[in-house]
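Input.
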Amino acid sequence: MYLFSGASNASLVVANGPAAGTKTVGIASGFGKDVFDTAGTLVLAADSAGDQADACEPLENDVANKIVLIHRGTCSFAQKAANAQAAGALGAIIANV
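Output.
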């Protein structure tokens, strides 16, 4: 996980599968490295309350060494990142769904 570094323009490169290609995602959050090369299995976050994929509570599914897809939800992005990190995630993608 990474510390706050300010907002930046962002894109996501999907290497394989039907969604392969570069996706423009607009302005990145105010934390995280601007450029990185990370590969891993993508899993949906699962916690115990409300929107169970928002990572506002500690994650209950196995996310160790995986990239976690997290719903935007209502808690802070820092809380979501902290919960993913505490569960051993390799990284996190927070999506507005």
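The longest strand covers residues 21-27.
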